[in-house]
Amino acid sequence: MDLHDFGLASDLEVMQRQALERRRLLRWVLAGAATLPLISCGGSGGSDTASASTGTGTGSSGTTTTTTTAGACAVIPEETGGPYPADGTNTNGGSIINVLNQTGVVRSDIRSSFNGATGVAAGVPLTIRLQLVNANAGCASLAGYAIYLWHCDRDGLYSLYSSGVTAQNYLRGVQETDSTGSLSFTTIFPGCYSGRMPHVHFEVYPSLARAAAASNRVKTSQFTFPLATLNEVYTASGYASSVRNLAQISYATDNVFSDGTSLQMASVTGNVTDGYVVTLTIGVNG
Prior knowledge:
By secondary structure, the protein is α+β, with helices and mostly antiparallel strands. It has helices at 7-30, 227-233, 240-246; strands at residues 87-92, 95-98, 125-134, 140-141, 146-150, 172-176, 182-188, 200-205, 219-223, 267-271, 275-284.
């Protein structure tokens, strides 16, 4: 990923985290601690890493259950849900758009439409693995929460809103976090439309039952991908418009990510042929 100057606010955030870690380190040394664990939240696009002091990893998803001191990780920034949330908070064509109360929305594979719609979104395969942690309790895993996730298709179109796909509801779904606070979605890599860096929207809910109403959400945010990955993905068939649009935007000029991406940059593995896996740890005030 290219490096960018995220400005004073980002610098202050980094300095505060560093100062906090130095104070914690001094306390552990004075107490004669045998180990010095460090915990923070976010993807590998920034300086943030995730490891556990007394936790157990869960393999390739990189999830952990922790019992570290409260306040050790940062809350992911609150962001706009944008004009295409389909969570009951806006309308299209004079009708309220809400998939949260539709049968079939709770699913891990969101490539196809559901509840009577039959379209399937084409594109480079993508697996999204998220872990939800409590910033108020030492980054402890948040089990039993729910995440509603949505994004555009490879043409930059949003189901239920964009011309040509208003009859589709693909690339939208809800999942419940497991005992480690983790969940995953199977989808396609989103395209880049004019004016925005490629991104994925999500809302966090305190339970699956309460995910039926947007008024219950506790966090709305977005995450993005490393530039090197985007340039690689968009060599694939069907992403020609994304190449043009991406050349005209950057993280620094994006209206969401211009203040920094350290907590919203997903880690990525994979390739165009086999598909990609992205992972992100999301800190919220649980």
